[in-house]
């Protein structure tokens, strides 16, 4: 039960978000770019902290605590479902490629790549549809996670006397989700991107303090208690099967492992890696991550922002995740994980907070986690607004006044929130919506967006049919099967690829002038020989991008470094000193390589410092 001090801390934070939204309201109303991208004048490190804060969400943290509790060090691979290492691809080269366009949204980027002909219009329409579906999915995902979280700390018995209507037990989490969603709506809709970024920096500060405090509590507990876990829990490496047996320790965990579908871990890992690499090369999906990249001052700062997001997020987040997971294992018998008599392992995080966090720190931590939800929600909402306003309303009303645009911004934000709340009522748990987003829905995105960077002949018609042929099965498959969404990712991928190829050859290539402009400005590597030859006719000194080998090598080093940033906090909490020293030494080597082979080379890359 929350104490007065905890409640006061949470209220101070919520009031602070309102003040930030009101303070930045005038700046947001200056122009479309000021509202959606902060005027492209925000410092890269603030955008990096904001991006890290946006990825430090309640639903994801609940999911990761559950994974770490059950699978131990093997859980470090499962977030590759997102894939988390897409941030490394962005840091190494993709953020710079994307930022060179100078556009406002991913859909506007599509016109930059395919022009405004029939194919460009079709592809523009399908990416707007995908972006809105994606944003609504993420909003529903955050919504249900927040509701489950708050339910533990504010028992319905306390609230029910003040609510003039009856709420069924199954929908109590949704009620809480609606209440706290309203605060996120306020500062994001009123303050725009600047309001989101400044609030995110406040939120990141709170989360960092909380994470360190939780890690210290867990570190001290490990020193005086014995960690009773299955064989292999402490080992990040794995064989063909998972072989994680909790029998005699916490028997119910075995049922959870069976339902997750990770038992054949090598097959799962290979599918996850295959999907993750393709998704990463395809570039960022049209959500808050892309909007932060487009908000930076230059391509170089876009790359710096993506790299800094990794450094800011991983160690801080895993101090908290590792701390709560360890405490939950040590004192499992003290946790209440049942809802309406059903065991729910996704409640490990809130139950552990309630059990182990002292007064004062509890209020700070809850404020931080509520902040994490609102950060993700606000960033995603901003992205959805960008597509609705920039790519739908302004396409039909290009001469609309700034006052009218502001009203449409507000209205679109409210509509998106209402729809996402309705969708949230149909979501059973965090894992189900997460699996659908990262596997099924993103499966429809991968092939079209991979080809758009790397193949000159790929046109707007190919993009449209590839996306459409992926989105339709992504929406239909979950109705007819309970199979883990990752396992039908390859099927969606093949269907989408067929759509890409057939669609591409059903229409002429994109206009040469459009392709030449895109290739010169973005300068990607890939299959661009016919376009390169046409450029060389007038600019013989122009050279193709030969950095593919170097970029891929740097990606591998970056992924190793990112993974080390995950395991180092876990080793600290568990007093595993020898693995800790080895991991730190490996991380230093990775940083030295990236300094020489990425950072120093990036400074001399064409267009990297241009705005």
Concise structural overview:
The protein has 611 residues and is mainly α.
Give me the side-by-side strand order of the main sheet: 1-2
Mean pLDDT: 83
What gyration radius follows from the Cα positions, in whole Å?
24 Å
Helical fraction equals over 70%
CA(first)-CA(last) distance:
51 Å
Spell the H/E element sequence: HHHHHHHHHHHHHHEEHHHHHHHHHH
Question: What's the helix and strand layout?
Answer:
Blueprint: H1 4-23, H2 25-28, H3 32-37, H4 44-55, H5 58-71, H6 86-99, H7 106-114, H8 118-153, H9 156-159, H10 172-224, H11 252-260, H12 265-282, H13 288-294, H14 299-330, E1 338-339, E2 342-343, H15 348-356, H16 361-396, H17 402-424, H18 430-454, H19 460-480, H20 489-505, H21 512-522, H22 529-538, H23 548-573, H24 577-602
Antiparallel strand pairs: 1-2
Describe the structure.
This protein is an all-alpha fold and 611 residues long. The protein has 24 helices and two strands. Helix 7 (106-114) packs antiparallel against helix 8. It starts with a helix and ends in a 9-residue tail after the last helix.
Keywords for this structure?
611 residues; mainly alpha; two-stranded antiparallel ribbon; 72% helix; globular
